[in-house]
Amino acid sequence: MRVLIAEDDPVSRRVLEASLKKWGYDVLVACDGDEAWEVFESGDGPRLAILDWMMPGLDGIEVSRRIRKQSNEDYVYVMILTSRGQKQDLIDAMAAGADDYVTKPFDAGELRVRVRAAQRILDLQDEIIAARESLREQATHDMLTGLLNRPAIIEALQRALDHGEREKSRVGVVMADLDHFKRINDTQGHKAGDTVLRESVRRMRSVLRTYDSIGRYGGEEFLLVLPGCDEDGAIALAERIRCCLGEEPVRLCRNSLEVTASFGVTVVEGCRGQTADSAIMVADEALYLAKERGRNRVERARGEPAGAC
Question: CATH number for the domain including 67?
């Protein structure tokens, strides 16, 4: 773990630095409060700061206040080092955002214990953040394919439509359905079906642009959101995905399977009041048309594009 020490007294600074390095910490050194704050302003500051209260320029209390005002999720543990020992001094330091308070001259053993306690707290915070992100991932992503799940891709579509309304730009909407997928599950088993889904997703992603979105809308049905795409562009992209899916069989443990898909395409113009549900409905109608006409094909919506102004 990296630790910043800010201490204007050279003797105390060298003792602190030597002790922390001996205990295995990566130490950054600042000679005053201004240097310490520059480290945190750079955006790559350490997670633990040991700040002398009285320093030229910014004092340790002011640096602590500024650290707390930063909107940074990586919490910085602040320890104030000072010769002051009155209860009010402790209250003032904590009110400024400090987490701990060590009086000088410090005892090396006590400081080591306090630094270890700080590290445990920071490690615990990292674990909490990791658990929260895992829950967020589970809430918004399909566990099998890693794609956005149905609520999340619908939300992504609505955001794209709202942006299209503001910018007067088009949004391509594509519904894709793997052909005869139930037959794969029935004849090859669900494990083979899972393999086909994951490989199909990999191939679809390889064709999409970096700013396109794709989500698992149903069992073997996918919703694609293509910002800034006109009808010709959306149809061409869907056609590239169709060719990529069918260019070679999906390899299973004992055999290989040909995989194809049907696609329904519509484009929403940048006009007011467009909803994700209405766009999906039109793209879904185009998808059913592709199935009616023999599958393994791309069809545009009948009549006017969704949301034509």
Answer: 3.40.50.2300
Catalytic-labelled residue, pool 35, 165, 220, 221: 220
User: Using an 8 Å Cβ cutoff, are 268 and 161 in contact?
Assistant: yes
- In angstroms, how far is CA 214 from the centroid of its own chain? 16
Q: Based on the fold, state whether residues 118 and 161 are members of the same structural domain.
A: no
* Residue 240: C-alpha distances to residues 231, 243, 249, 263 (Å): 14, 5, 16, 11
Q: Which domain, by its residues, includes 260?
A: 150-300
Residue-wise DSSP of 50-102: EEESS-SSS-HHHHHHHHHHS--SS--EEEEEES---HHHHHHHHHTT-SEEE
pLDDT band at 94; cut points 50, 70, 90: confident
Give pLDDT, residue 83.
Answer: 79
Same domain, 167 and 286: yes
pLDDT tens string 245-266: 999 999 988 889 999 999 999 9
132/157 same-domain check:
no
- Annotated active-site residue 220? The verdict is yes
User: How far lies 189's CA from each of 47, 162, 182, in Å?
Assistant: 50, 41, 10
Is the CB of residue 141 less than 8 Å from the CB of residue 156?
no
